[in-house]
Specification:
CATH class of one domain in chain A: Alpha Beta
CATH topology of the largest domain in chain B: Rossmann fold
Strand order of the largest sheet of chain B: 1-12-7-4-2-3
Number of strands of chain A: 10
CATH architecture of one domain in chain A: 3-Layer(aba) Sandwich
Strand order of the largest sheet of chain A: 1-10-7-4-2-3
Radius of gyration of chain B: 21 Å
Distance between the termini of chain B: 57 Å
CATH superfamily of the largest domain in chain B: NagB/RpiA/CoA transferase-like
Shape of chain A: globular
Radius of gyration of chain A: 25 Å
Strand content of chain A: 5-15%
Oligomer: heterodimer
CATH topology of one domain in chain A: Rossmann fold
Number of domains of chain B: 2
Order of helices and strands of chain B: HHHEHEHEEEEEEHEEEE
Chain lengths: 459, 221
């Protein structure tokens, strides 16, 4: 995908709209995510109260994050694990590489981790002679295709089954080239067999975390495939790679958040595997990792605590805001050209990577507000997008044409005597152009009069 | 690297304050110790019989299968029936926990029984559950010397022994039971149905990486 890494949103969006295969794939979003979430929420009368409680838990935790981080780290240590405090991506990559080297690792299995994408850990491991293997089926597919994920929880949502078959034929060269791979079931069976060998061979397993529990020093991960469990159980060392905002105080708090997570993400009552991992294997255990490491990554998160953006740190990465966003539904995740796409991506990417390279993202929104309606954590996404648009204007990051047009509009808006006639002239011209053929003919034609004129003429 | 003090001071700077005082820390300690629950859904509450029925309904909705057996002594025959009915090899890897390892397996000479953690070639396993959660039809399984985690994950078919008396309403009741047992085990697996994936064209497929089948033997006594 040539346009996958570009930050030129307009060109990416145009290409995405013209991509028939992608448009077909995005059609699944409405049925599989939007309708199922609505059904799951409707089935649980307590859903709205659970959302309120979930917001309160995260707000409380973020306001006392220093305390909860310390308590968590102390409990991890008491359970025999190690916490690595990492200010940025480079420190996190170095910490992970050091653990892998000490374990003599040649193969590292990975559960799905957006933080892993954020710090580009796979490229770093490869550059150092270690093979990273994605084990979530969707992540495995896009790893073979050398693409970034296009969705928080369905990373290969843009890929057709024919494209998966092509990727598998290219990667699994030891198998019969004539084997039938037409059906998803055959593709799944092949991936299961291929990855089973990797699971058993891996020296280190890296997973993300959905929640970190301060009370017990536990990392909780949620999957439907069971790949996160095999990733953390079979190797010598388990690394949890996660951001500092994932803390919750107690197991009870985690239970409340779990009740809103699966319903908001896939519309399931509960995910298939919810796993609480605390420290390395215990004396007498017959399996489990001998080492337990937690990489606590800041990478711009602590700075978000200071202002409006703190609300975005409540995010539990369910993907509901992507699924319900008319822009995401139209162009998919790659058009955003960022690790985190959709409304939440447009809010946190400028915070994590700077506004200058991400100024297109807060503008990739219609401000329709559906994201905020469905966000289980009630993150005021439109308000936070507006925050970035204001910052963009204040820092003079917009193109000169946009600034000039806005300045001209402001000049007229402050002078009502000129504004009325100027608007009438513009409406008349546009109305005429809009009826022509050619490029301008696709414009929605104004009614031919301004609102003020119509108001005066009202009976 | 691993600059704990540096990261914590960045957090405090952004929060606009210094370290918390003794009183504030004590309040937060108390919040943790209170283990206060959020809203517990109505469906997680009810009489035992109601909760058992709800557990079965929710587990089946998640594509697990449930068979009720009257007593532990009937488990080996129920396992034999299950393996035969699904054309599975007559081999079973059993958790070392006496609750399953010490069952009267001699009555099932056709099944090749072995005890221990799962190996790559194991096709079916039997493990005991700590609890069942009625709210979502979820099994709670804990790691320990008698209950290796790999048995829950590697075999194609996972058979779980659950006592009806261990069915609780909510996740929170499992936390309470775990706290009573002492420090958390290395792993607590909450399992709701067999492994699945919808990553290829959003088409749901069973048996992604974990077991393709999850069968619950519910002991009524």
């Amino acid at each position: 995908m040539a346009h996958a890494h570009s930050s030129n949103f307009e060109a990416n969006a145009r290409a995405a709209l013209a991509d028939a295969q992608l448009q077909r794939a995005l059609g699944h979003v409405r049925v599989n995510f939007v309708e199922r979430r609505a059904a799951a929420a409707a089935r649980l009368p307590e859903f709205e109260r659970l959302r309120d409680r979930a917001v309160a838990i995260k707000d409380h935790t973020l306001a006392h994050l220093d305390y909860y981080l310390e308590r968590f780290a102390d409990e991890v240590g008491a359970a025999g694990g190690t916490v690595h405090w990492c200010a940025d991506a480079a420190e996190a990559r170095a910490a992970i590489l050091a653990i892998c080297r000490k374990a003599g690792a040649r193969t590292v299995t990975k559960g799905k981790s957006m933080v892993g994408e954020e710090i580009a850990i796979n490229a770093h491991l490869e550059a150092n002679g270690i093979e990273p293997v994605e084990t979530d089926l969707g992540e495995y597919i896009i790893q073979l295709r050398k693409e970034p994920p296009s969705h928080l929880i369905a990373p290969a949502i843009h890929v057709s089954k024919e494209q998966v078959a092509d990727a598998f034929r290219a990667a699994h060269r030891n198998l019969d080239p004539a084997r039938p791979l037409g059906e998803p079931a055959a593709l799944l069976a092949e991936a299961r067999a291929a990855l089973r060998g990797k699971f058993l061979a891996a020296d280190v397993g890296i997973t993300g975390a959905n929640f970190l529990v301060a009370e017990t020093g536990s990392a909780i991960i949620v999957t439907n495939e069971g790949n996160g469990d095999l990733t953390q159980t079979l190797p010598k060392a388990h690394i949890v790679l996660t951001g500092i905002e994932k803390l919750v105080p107690t197991l009870e708090d985690a239970a409340t958040l779990l009740r809103v997570l699966a319903r908001s993400a896939t519309g399931q009552e509960f995910s298939v595997y919810t796993t609480v991992a605390t420290g390395p294997r215990r004396a007498g255990d017959l399996d489990g990792p001998g080492e337990f490491h937690v990489i606590l990554l800041d990478n711009g998160r602590s700075a978000m605590l200071a202002g409006n953006l703190r609300d975005a740190l409540r995010c539990i990465r369910c993907g509901a805001c992507l699924n319900h966003c008319p822009v995401y539904q139209a162009v998919g995740g790659h058009a955003y050209g960022a690790v985190y796409s959709g409304p939440i991506g447009a809010v946190i990417t400028p915070a994590l990577h700077g506004l200058a390279g991400a100024r297109h993202l807060p503008n990739a929104s219609t401000f329709c507000g559906r994201c905020e309606e469905v966000c289980p954590m009630r993150i005021p996404l439109p308000r936070l997008l507006r925050h970035w648009r204001e910052a963009e204007f204040e820092r003079h990051l917009q193109p000169a044409v946009s600034r000039a047009a806005l300045a001209a509009w402001a000049f007229l808006a402050r002078r009502p005597r000129i504004y009325g006639p100027a608007a009438a002239l513009a409406a008349a011209v546009l109305s005429r152009l809009g009826r022509r053929h050619g490029r301008l003919g696709s414009l929605p034609a104004p009614a031919g009069a301004t609102f003020q004129q119509m108001w005066r003429r009202r009976p | 690297m691993s600059d704990r003090a540096g990261l914590l001071s960045a957090v405090r700077r952004a929060l606009g304050r210094g370290e918390l005082g003794v009183d504030e820390r004590r309040e937060l300690d108390a919040r943790i110790a209170s283990a206060e629950s959020g809203p517990i859904p109505t469906r997680a509450q009810g009489e035992r019989r109601e909760l058992i029925d709800r557990f079965i309904a929710m587990a089946e909705e998640a594509s697990a299968t449930v068979r009720r057996v009257a007593a532990p002594g009937e488990v080996p025959a129920a396992v034999g029936d299950y393996l035969a009915a699904h054309n599975l090899p007559s081999r079973l890897r059993v958790a070392p926990d006496p609750a399953v390892a010490d069952l009267p397996w001699r009555g099932q000479p056709m099944i090749d029984i072995s005890v221990g953690a799962a190996r790559a070639e194991d096709s079916a396993s039997l493990t005991p559950a700590l609890a069942g959660v009625a709210e979502t039809g979820t099994l709670a399984l804990v790691s320990g010397p008698g209950t290796p985690t790999t048995l829950n994950l590697l075999p194609d078919a996972h058979i779980v022994l659950l006592r009806a008396g261990d069915i609780v309403g909510s996740l929170e009741e499992v936390w309470t039971r775990l706290r009573r047992l002492g420090a958390l085990p290395r792993t607590v697996n909450f399992i709701t149905g067999p492994s699945r994936s919808a990553d290829i064209e959003q088409t749901l497929q069973m048996g992604a990486h974990g077991p393709r089948r999850l069968h619950i033997l519910l002991i009524d006594e």
